[in-house]
């Protein structure tokens, strides 16, 4: 086991409340995860990343944390956590936990204390409290908007306002406060001592802020894409002092613990989060936002490979996670070749009707995109259910929507519940084997065809493609990467060490393959022709006769 295991790992994201329920409350839990270790092992992943499992009122799917050093009683206990880690470790699977340092929940003991404390008290200084504007302070301190919509300020009962860049139930912490800094070091050690191998850092670009007044009005805030480290709210240069301190904690352990940043920053600034004095990796969401288009994929791959090489880091590849429309769906909507994000948002708002989704096309492209990313140098982050080829659930009734984004945007954004519907393990039975109770989000009938049981019975299923591809990928050594000369605009062809080639046909016509031995493909291949929307891995050279 090398200490930089994460550099080319296949990491599988578990959204615990929707993965497997060992009980009957319809909410996935830690024992559920433990019960599925054989499945995770058969998938061939190197690590799991667990989205938050901490006590939470679920105002934002668990990213509103009441207590950073405990398990939500509905999800289990610390003993269950230890058992889960032990079971994963004995299967050779490492564990990354999600840390949410930008904000606590409004039920956190500190926030309760802050609300009960007077203005200018030490308890309020752990958060960002300010007086309001206007004659009686009835207006928010600035016009800043929260990410989920609406004002970024909410009023406390005594009339002061507190900052929340996400939901009002997620008050932002004040990272200038030494007690806040010290407490997170305690939290890091708490989980590292329990054997976790790494941390995923939520909103890593948001912790430090320049809150000197007067506040810059929204219209004068720089665009994040042009940020230079001085934006008052995001991606400030001094945030790296925090990660330097954290790195010293990670390096106290043997093997050192790792961390991956969720840093939504300009690609040119992403590498700042990574280094010997910082975190180990930063998510790259470039492909997740890319249209189904060879040129766009190539440009984004080039940028990530160049950026990570110059920073001495390793690349990360992500196509789906708990915040975006699943990639099988994105690629199956007309508009996927152009503006997939907006098309998917409109499709969700129409309850999954407009524009009509071509499920087969989306899945075919999703398999091709996955094989492409699995062939790239660096690590891949996979999201639960993508190995089943799951589509987004587009028609969740609005009264069942949990995501705060839906209501705070005044219903103009449907939110992220459609990718968080519980996993179908069996083709029938209550909640398709997820729980003995009613799942916290309803599963559609079509989930039956995408269940683990159904796909295990089909050698050509998406699940079997993932298993075989991950097994093959683990044999690929080295970080080498080079584009092969290619004149066909809809074809991407790159070469990895030892003559291992990956070719993707983004176009609508089959294209001839060069000489070589096919190792694996995302769809059947006849007569050495690569069909549309297909990726092939092969060893270049003479085709054996
Ligand atoms: C990013 C997480 O991925 C998302 O789910 C959450 O809503 C925000 N951070 C706020 O914590």
Largest sheet: 8 strands, parallel
Helical content (DSSP H or I, runs of 4+):
25-40%
Average pLDDT taken over every residue: 95
- In one word, what is the shape? globular
Radius of gyration: 23 Å
* Beta-strand content bin: 5-15%
Helix/sheet category = alpha/beta
Give the uncertain stretches in residue-range form: none
Q: Which ions and ligands are bound to the chains?
A: 1-deoxynojirimycin
- Overall number of strands: 18
Number of helices: 15
Cα distance spanning the termini: 39 Å
Biggest sheet: strand arrangement: 9-8-7-3-2-1-11-10
Report on the structure:
Helix content is 26%, strand content 13%. It contains 15 helices and 18 strands. The strands form four sheets. An eight-stranded parallel sheet has the order 9-8-7-3-2-1-11-10, with helices on one face. A five-stranded antiparallel sheet has the order 12-13-14-18-16. A three-stranded antiparallel sheet has the order 4-6-5, with no helix packed on it. Helix 12 packs parallel to helix 15. The longest helix is centred in the middle third of the chain and has 18 residues. It binds 1-deoxynojirimycin. 1-deoxynojirimycin binds next to loops.
């Amino acid at each position: 086991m090398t200490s930089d295991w994460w550099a080319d790992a296949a990491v599988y994201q578990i959204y615990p409340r929707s993965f497997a329920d060992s009980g009957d409350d319809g909410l996935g839990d830690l024992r559920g995860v433990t019960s599925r270790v054989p499945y995770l092992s058969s998938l061939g992943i190197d690590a799991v990343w667990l989205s938050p499992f901490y006590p939470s009122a679920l105002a934002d799917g668990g990213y509103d944390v009441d207590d950073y050093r405990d398990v939500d009683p509905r999800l289990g206990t610390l003993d269950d956590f230890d058992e889960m880690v032990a079971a994963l470790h004995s299967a050779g699977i490492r564990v990354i936990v999600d840390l949410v340092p930008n904000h606590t929940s409004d039920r956190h003991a500190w926030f309760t204390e802050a609300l009960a404390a007077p203005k200018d008290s030490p308890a309020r200084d752990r958060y960002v409290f300010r007086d309001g504007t206007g004659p009686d302070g009835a207006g928010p301190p600035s016009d800043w908007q929260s990410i989920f919509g609406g004002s970024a300020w909410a009023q406390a009962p005594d009339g002061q306002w507190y900052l929340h860049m996400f939901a009002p139930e997620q008050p932002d912490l004040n990272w200038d406060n030494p007690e806040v800094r010290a407490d997170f070091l305690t939290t890091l050690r708490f989980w590292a001592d329990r054997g976790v191998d790494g941390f995923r850092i939520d909103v890593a670009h948001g912790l430090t802020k320049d809150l000197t007044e007067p506040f810059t009005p929204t219209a004068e805030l720089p665009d994040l894409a042009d940020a230079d480290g001085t934006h008052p709210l995001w991606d400030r240069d001094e945030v790296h002092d925090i990660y330097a301190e954290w790195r010293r904690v990670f390096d106290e352990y043997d093997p050192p613990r790792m961390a991956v940043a969720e840093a939504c920053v300009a690609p040119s600034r992403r590498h700042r989060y990574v280094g010997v004095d910082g975190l180990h990796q930063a998510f790259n969401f470039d492909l997740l936002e890319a249209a189904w288009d060879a040129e766009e994929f190539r440009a984004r791959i080039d940028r990530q490979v160049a950026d990570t090489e110059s920073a001495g880091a390793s690349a990360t590849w992500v196509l789906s996670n708990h915040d975006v429309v699943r990639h099988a769906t994105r690629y199956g909507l007309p508009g996927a070749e152009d503006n997939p994000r907006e098309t998917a948002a409109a499709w969700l708002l129409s309850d999954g009707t407009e524009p009509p989704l071509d499920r087969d096309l989306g899945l075919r492209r999703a398999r091709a995109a996955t094989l492409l990313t699995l062939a790239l140098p660096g690590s891949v982050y996979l999201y639960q259910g993508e190995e089943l080829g799951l589509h987004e659930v587009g028609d969740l009734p609005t009264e069942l929507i949990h995501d705060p984004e839906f209501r705070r945007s005044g219903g103009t954004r449907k939110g992220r519940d459609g990718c968080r519907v519980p996993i179908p393990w069996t083709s029938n039975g209550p909640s398709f084997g997820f729980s003995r109770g009613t799942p916290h989000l309803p599963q559609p009938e079509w989930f039956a065809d995408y269940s683990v049981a159904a796909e295990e019975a089909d050698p050509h299923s998406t699940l079997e493609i993932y298993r075989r591809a991950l097994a093959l990928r683990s044999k690929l050594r080295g970080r080498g990467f080079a584009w092969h000369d290619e004149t066909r605009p809809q074809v991407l062809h790159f070469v990895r060490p030892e003559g291992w080639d990956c070719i993707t046909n983004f176009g609508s016509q089959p294209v001839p393959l060069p000489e070589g031995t096919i190792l694996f493909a995302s769809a059947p291949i006849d007569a050495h022709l690569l069909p549309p929307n297909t990726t092939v891995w092969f060893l270049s050279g003479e085709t054996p006769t």
